[in-house]
Amino acid sequence: MSGRAIATSILVGAAALLAAMQYGHAASQASPPTSKVGVVSVRDVFNGSKKHAQYQALLTKRVNQARAQIDELNKQLDNAEIELKGLRPGTVDYVKQYQAVLEARSKLQNEQELIKQQRMAEDKKWFEDLYQEALKAIDAVAKEKGLDLVLERSEPKFPLASEEV
After folding, report:
1. Is the peptide bond before 159 cis (omega within 30 degrees of 0)?
2. Which comes out higher in pLDDT, residue 21 or 81?
């Protein structure tokens, strides 16, 4: 092989190598398409909504009604216990009044438990429905703003705790 052939081969090889490196380098520098990401706190959406404020007002009204009902039952129980103390143990009247005291205690306990269970069930349903509505609204806003992904800042905890009556 002549010197010219070797030199030509080296030049062609170098040109091919440069061309291949240029394409490889260009491919590695091309950035992948970026995704638009949004972050939301559903709890903040809850707390800032008018619907939640209305529910809180309704809840306050219900709690006050339940407390009034419990207070009335407590008064009835107190009156029955006071009347029982005025009777002599072992008499027929004492036994009847003792039965009335037991019934009043039972009624009070049952009513307290019923109110608690009703409130927990109502709160759970309300917040789960509100959460579903919030997710739909978030999805609509994400589509409107062209977001590919929306992340929640905090994990929801179901069932949501409610205040004791």
Report:
1. yes
2. 81
Cα 108 to chain center, whole Å? 32
Judging by DSSP bridges, how do beta strands 149-152 and 37-40 pair with one another?
A: parallel
Give long-range contacts, CB 8 A cutoff, 24+ apart: 76-82: 76/104, 77/101, 77/104, 77/105, 77/108, 80/104
d(CA 47, CA 50): 8
Q: The whole model's pTM is what?
A: 0.59
For the stretch 117-152, pLDDT in tens is: 999 998 899 888 888 888 888 888 889 988 888 887
Helix, strand, or coil (residue 89): coil
Whether the per-residue pLDDT at 163 is higher than 70: the answer is no
